[in-house]
What does this fold into?
Amino acid sequence: MSFLIGGKEINSRLFIGTGKLPSYEMIKSIIEYSQIDVVTVAVRRIGKGNTWGNIIDYIPKETILMINTSGARDYKEAVKIAQIGRELTKSDWIKVEIEADTKYLLPDNEETIKASEILVKEGFKVFPYITPDLIVAKKLESIGVSAVMPLGSPIGTNKGIAAKELIKPIIKEIKVPVIIDAGLGRPSHAAEAMEMGADACLINTAIATSNDPIKMTKAFKMAVDAGRSAYEIGVLQEKDYADASSPLTGFLRGV
Amino acid sequence: MFNIDETIKFYELNDKSITKNEAFCILNKEEIDERDYISLINCDDLDVLEIAAKRAKKITEMYFGKNIFLYVPLYVSNICSSGCIYCGFSCSNSIERRRLKEDEIDREMKYLKNRGFNSILILTGEDYSKAGFEHLKKAVNIARGYFNEVFIESAAYTYEKYKELALEGMNGLTLYQETYDKGIYSAVHPVGKKRDFDFRLNAVEEAIRAGIKYINIGCLLGLSVNYKKDVFFLLMHVKYLMEKYPNIEISISFPRICPFEGIKFCYTKVSDLDFVKFIVYTRIFLKNVGINISTRENKNLRDNLIGLGVTKMSAESKTSVGGYLSTHNLKGQFEVSDDRKLEEIINKIKEKGYNPEFNNWVML
It folds into this structure.
């Protein structure tokens, strides 16, 4: 089930956010218990010379660190944050997250394209977080991003893939991996995203604010794996009409 | 500009009590509006508040995760030209006055950084002199070398002045309107530039235009007898700012008047019940606003508010100039109620299942 992303071969199609967890200590257990390969960390949370511990120290060395630009209001801030983050962590996987709206936390696609263009040129592996828009995804793909990350529904809402019909064409048309980021509140949402053909899911709120983040990660992991398997096998189509046991038009066939 | 007069009319028209059942109906709505907020703060039923608190907890975790952000205040000067009757630093109080010297600021900040803080609030009196402003700028400049978040709580300034401070490294502004009742405002600010209500109200927007990212506003609960009305105005002010500047992170404070040595005026006591209602219903009404609680409040209340809506807390605060290392032993601005060591506060936050977080921004 391994797949290639950002120039690396990884196994876990479930990526985990770390920004809302009740403790740093939990991160290691989550990663180990569910064999997570990629975690995201906001650069704004990485303190220089922290007396009370640095979030980075709690992440196993072999785990891939995707730093993010959360808090950036425009492309200039995002680029600066990315540069500082790379300096602090030595990781070049950057999730471009530019929220120009603190109420709905919706990404600013226009600024995201600008930041991605600069960061790809600077040698980053760029993972832009976007409101699902096929045209934006295509532009990002042509810029050379490593994946696109459309939201399922607004951050933290746990509403699942409310943007399903906008995500479908992205999965169909975009060649780079598509990671569903934000809004997935239940394992079944993640399974649905994977059945649709998403390459991975990124979960934060639904795990971090659950009663048991370690076990909830496992639940999401199993759902992601199940959804992926089903997609690879070929999910059977839903039928609007059952096969009637006594065909109504059977008389025409001499039945 | 935030329109106070229209807000007064709206409040007075909707300032009514509601029954328990009506309150439950409101809490079942997906979104509550201004009218609902007024109704809920007029309802003292504890069953209603319990249901609301559960909802507030969920919303807080959705937006802020299981985090409590910690910051520390540092008073760098108590020189003041305003005569606010509720303040220990009022120019009419005969207390020893001083500005910390540069090396003292550096020492205090280095100490606070070593204690683990990454967010500092620099406070001064209202000092509009050239020397006062240059001193504040210097303090901000020193702070940027140690901290990622540098808030100031000082006099209200113009766009140009905030621009200068932003260039030195200021990224947050704390500026309380104190009260939104113009009559009371005028009565409690008998002398000084702070008497200009509109100048202060607009200063927040001046700072936003100058590039300040974090805004913390509040009103001093108990200045007005009708403090519920003040809180409603505060929330309307926040809502106005959020709609006009959607990419700014706004937080609010509900400081209750704390006594200080030599206090000589009557104020209205705000009960714990009302205080908790403000926090819980603010969270439900304005889901993404930060809520800040200082060491003015006692440890028991502070501990119990973790998770109900509060997102940011000060810790180990001293309210006198250079209070951490200085040997001058100057009087504080007010008396701190929670004087626990940082370690104790951290342990309590963890015990409650939350992450004590010191970082929320990166100095760009």
Observations:
- Chain A has a mean pLDDT of 91.
